[in-house]
Amino acid sequence: MKNEPKIPWNTAEILEATKGDLLCGDIKHTFEGVSIDSRTISANELFIAIRGNVYDGHRFVSNVITGGVRGLIVSKDAGTDWQDKGIVCVAVSDTTKALGDLASFNRRRTDVSVVAITGSNGKTTTREMTASVVSTRYKTLSTKGNFNNEIGLPLTLLDLKNSHQWAVLELGTNRPGEIDRLGEICIPDIGVITNIGFSHLEGLGSIEGVMNAKGELLKRIKPEGTAVLNADDSRVLYLSKKTSRKVLYFGLSEDARIKALNVNEKTTGISFTLVLPEERIPIELRVHGGFMVSNALAAASVGYIIGLSSEEIKAGLEYFQPVKGRINIFDVRGVHIIDDTYNANPDSMEAAIRILSSLKGNSRGILVAGDMLELGEHAESMHKKIGALSARSNIARLYITGEFAEAVAKGAGKEDKNSMDIFIGAREEILEDLKKSLLPGDWVLVKGSRAMGMEKIVEGLKECNTKK
After folding, report:
1. Cα(218)–Cα(171) distance, integer angstroms
2. pLDDT value for 468
């Protein structure tokens, strides 16, 4: 039920979960939830003072106490000024670790089963597709937005309610050891690796570093659990040889047990025949891009493992709608906008450009590209490659913004045989020029890394629909 409460906590459980020290307060005091946000916390919740890159939650302890909060988790080195306030106060060595420890305790004290999904591309869409499939039969908790790190994943698990039967979680990483920790927290019954590509190279160093980081998930799957792996990805296949867990392969190759036949891209989306071990069933996805089939196969694999019928799997896949900012297509006064602004790396940018090239047909194609971040020493060369691909894809106009805009332009210039127009500028300048130059029938792809804020351009174009 929508108003069902979260699972409550008492002080004794908090101490058991975190192995912290009780500085003051009642061992039997009960809290109705956990929060790290001083702006939204309720008086009956426990406040955890997280130290982040920008804010230190300890600075807001006095505010939450004034607001009526009766419990804190703080760092041992944070002082003791609040011990005479008549509240529960638990001290730990690391409040971020304590948040994860509480989440892990919460996961273990429920009957919930967990699907954990990682990969360089497609993990958010796969997560949403999987949640759609699983929820056809079971009460399902799913990661919201980009809550896929050492803060976000625990916050998701702390939302568990007694009625939840499955949790479908996304695991992200930009450094070695992060997925290992996330897996330690969520203890997956099923682990999914969508693919391994050129993402977060700044923190992971190389494609081998990416592979090893994603592979950390496999050892955290329960011994009796199952790894769902992409048979079309050579690096994922390499990892599969190193795991002792049961493996179910998905993909288009012969090695896959869950596969797709007769893939057909249409104006309304993608159709294919889903091949399960015992039967075949037609699927109509309301999304664009051939890579979406792989995401759907991963989700179908999870459904198959947990015993869903083919009709339930079909219903879950066909009910799925694209995640905001993931190949969302809409029209603005006859112009077709492809909103893929959720995030970007070289592989996903290449896939999106191919979608633009396919969908536009003989119409004019326009790419609006922001930087792909966290590529480290590979950034210059990767951006040049995207420029070159744009030129080879018969794109009429290229708008570029960000630190690596010149690199994209150089790559395009070396390949361009059709005098493609290139515009380099700030987001606001690009939006202004787009509004003046777009023509009915044009196809426009907008994409860039999350921090580039490329959705602002999409929002600005949408406003054209409301103006007379």
Report:
1. 12
2. 44
Domain-embedded: residue 357 = yes
**What pLDDT does residue 417 have?**
57
Sign of CA dihedral 429, 435, 440, 445: positive
Top-confidence residue, 283 or 62 = 283
Quick one: pLDDT at residue 136? Answer: 98
Confidence (pTM): 0.88
| Average pLDDT, rounded, for the chain | 93
Residues 226 and 295 in one domain: yes
Contacts of residue 56, Cβ cutoff 8 Å, sequence gap at least 6: 49
Supply the CATH number for residue 193's domain.
Answer: 3.40.1190.10
Query: Are both 335 and 262 inside the same structural domain?
Result: no
Q: How far apart are alpha carbons 278 and 310 in whole angstroms?
A: 10
Handedness of CA 197, 203, 208, 210 (dihedral sign): negative
Residues in the chain, overall count: 468
- Using an 8 Å Cβ cutoff, are 265 and 358 in contact? yes
pLDDT tens digits, one per residue of 130-160: 999 999 999 999 998 889 999 999 999 999 9
Residue 205 region, left (φ>0) first, then alpha (ψ -120 to 50), else beta? left
Task: Note the pLDDT tens digit of each residue in 189-247.
Answer: 999 999 998 888 888 889 999 999 999 999 999 999 999 999 999 999 999 999 999 99
Within 10 angstroms of residue 279's Cβ, the number of other Cβ atoms is 9
| CATH code (residue 414) | 3.90.190.20
Residue finishing a domain among 93, 123, 143: 93
Residue by residue, what is the 3-state secondary structure of 123-190?
A: HHHHHHHHHHHHCCCCCEEECCCCCCCCCHHHHHHCCCCCCCCEEEEECCCCCCCHHHHHHHHHCCCE
Residue with tokens 């150089």: 410
Same domain, 76 and 118: no
In whole angstroms, what is the distance from residue 101 CA to residue 15 CA? 10
Distance of CA 466 to the CA centre of its chain: 31
Structural contact between residues 75 and 49, judged by C-beta atoms closer than 8 angstroms: yes
Q: Are residues 305 and 337 in the same domain?
A: no
Tokens 């994860």 sit on residue: 100
Domain of residue 446 covers: 328-466
